[in-house]
């Protein structure tokens, strides 16, 4: 019997690469220093600012203008305005130089119509004459251009434009319409752009439940079994049942919660009596806004306070209902503890060890720079047009800052070439990196999903910032 062939062993070891990084490339008489950890990617940028004195095309004497930018097989359009001869768009289009298959770029102004859009005028540029811009040079100032008809004759109307060759280091890059994502509908563009996220600062909320006084159970013929339930958002904790069976129970028990700035939540404390299996009676309740809670930054304990426990009882007096409101009291010590770091990561992969209170932070010891270059050998994560595909983006997390690269559409070897930085406060920390498939785009079988999937062949890698 013939044995099946052995599957090749996957190699997940680190491999050294030698990409052509931007730090060594020259542009004119100066060196490019921005994005020096990644390869420079060339783009043709077209910024469409505004137009003026556009002629009326409709029988009503109005104009519904929009702009169409054409370069070879790629076409990008601005939004249109209704009945406006002096529109302002201020939109940027980016065309990857690697995919340019034309020698000129055309910018056409059209009038939107129900049947067929009317041509108003155009401006064209020879790509060989487009200027280059390298940051930190200032952005190229837009200029007014007179519109021409299809024969090249001047017509009424002017268009303000700026056209230049740049790189992914350009300020216009994150917000530009990319020809690489031409198949993505306009409402999906927000899901493919690169983004930087800052996680909210987390605080420990310490609730020391000490005692209660003057509780009034409904059944005065039995000793109450009293406990305290504390809720903060979807976090719920309970004390043990007090060993002091009476109207003045004691606990002296600590409960710990986690809250995030800004403090918009409330602590809800209820004192309850266990009157039977799975049956509790409310004896009193108090609500404490987190904004009113003291902050502790050192070892000194905060002062205790008494809080009123309110309970509303409805009684019948003849045919009328009467609501009685009376208060017991509960003794608490509550504080927002900023002297410790809130553990929200695995201790083996922690990226931030600082206490919550910013006053206790030490100065940073350096800057971590990360260049996200490319990925290879990604697996198909969904089916589109009868074939496997993946729309990959990369996520990196360090400290309170998350970054997400732009999504590269339909590629198993995506090239991002994006660069990010973090401040480092402790060398014994790690940065976590992962590659995900974007399932929020049109055409995927999971387009209606809410959570993107890690690519099965990608892996999370950690690096000590000291060994940059």
Automatic annotation (TrEMBL):
Where in or outside the cell is it found?
Answer: Membrane
> Which Gene Ontology CC terms are recorded?
membrane
Which intervals hold domain C2? 25-145, 186-307, 349-467
Membrane topology, as annotated, equals: Multi-pass membrane protein
- Chain residue ranges for the region called Disordered: 1-27, 444-468
Instruction: List all Polar residues biased stretches.
Output: 456-468
Q: List, alphabetically, the Gene3D superfamilies matched.
A: C2 domain
Q: Ranges of Basic and acidic residues compositional bias?
A: 8-18
**Keywords for this protein:** Membrane, Repeat, Transmembrane, Transmembrane helix
Which protein family is named in the record?
A: Belongs to the MCTP family.
The name under which this protein is listed is: FT-interacting protein 1-like
| Annotated organism of origin | Iris pallida (Sweet iris)
């Amino acid at each position: 019997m013939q044995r099946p062939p052995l599957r090749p062993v996957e190699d997940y070891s680190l491999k050294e690469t030698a990409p052509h990084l931007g730090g060594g490339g020259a542009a004119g008489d100066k060196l490019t220093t921005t994005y020096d950890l990644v390869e420079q990617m060339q783009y043709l940028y077209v910024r469409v600012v505004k137009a003026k004195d556009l002629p009326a095309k409709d029988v009503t004497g109005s104009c519904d203008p929009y702009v169409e930018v054409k370069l070879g097989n790629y076409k990008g359009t601005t939004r249109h305005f209704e009945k406006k001869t002096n529109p302002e768009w201020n939109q940027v289009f980016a065309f990857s130089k690697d995919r340019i298959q034309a020698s000129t770029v055309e910018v056409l102004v059209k009038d939107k119509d129900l049947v067929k859009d009317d041509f108003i005028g155009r401006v064209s540029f020879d790509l060989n004459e487009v200027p280059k811009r390298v940051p930190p040079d200032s952005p190229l100032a837009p200029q007014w251009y007179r519109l021409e008809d299809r024969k090249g004759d001047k017509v009424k109307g002017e268009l303000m434009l700026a056209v230049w060759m740049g790189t992914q280091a350009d300020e216009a890059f994150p917000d530009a319409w990319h020809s690489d994502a031409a198949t993505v509908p306009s409402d999906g563009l927000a899901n493919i752009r690169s983004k930087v996220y800052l996680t909210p600062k987390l605080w420990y909320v310490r609730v020391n439940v000490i005692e209660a006084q003057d509780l009034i159970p409904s059944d005065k013929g039995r000793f109450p079994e009293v406990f305290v339930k504390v809720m903060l958002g979807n976090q719920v904790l309970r004390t043990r049942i007090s060993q002091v069976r009476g109207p003045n129970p004691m606990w002296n028990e600590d409960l710990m919660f986690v809250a995030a700035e800004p403090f918009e939540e409330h602590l809800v404390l209820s004192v309850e009596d266990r009157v039977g299996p799975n049956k509790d009676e409310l004896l009193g309740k108090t609500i404490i806004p987190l904004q009113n809670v003291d902050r502790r930054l050192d070892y000194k304990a905060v002062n205790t306070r008494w809080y009123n426990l309110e309970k509303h009882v409805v009684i019948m007096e003849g045919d009328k209902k009467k609501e009685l409101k009376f208060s017991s009291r509960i003794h608490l010590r509550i504080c927002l503890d900023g002297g410790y770091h809130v553990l929200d990561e695995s201790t083996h992969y922690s990226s931030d060890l600082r206490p919550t209170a910013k006053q206790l932070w030490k100065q940073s010891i350096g800057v971590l720079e990360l260049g996200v270059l490319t990925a290879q050998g990604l697996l198909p994560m969904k089916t589109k047009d009868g074939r496997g595909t993946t729309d990959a983006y990369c996520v990196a997390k360090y400290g309170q800052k998350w970054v997400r690269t732009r999504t590269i559409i339909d590629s198993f070897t995506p090239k991002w070439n994006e660069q990010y930085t973090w401040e480092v406060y402790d060398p014994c920390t790690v940065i976590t990196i992962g590659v995900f498939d974007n399932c929020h785009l049109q055409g995927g079988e999971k387009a209606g999903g809410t959570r993107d999937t890690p690519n099965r062949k990608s892996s999370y890698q950690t690096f000590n910032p000291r060994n940059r």
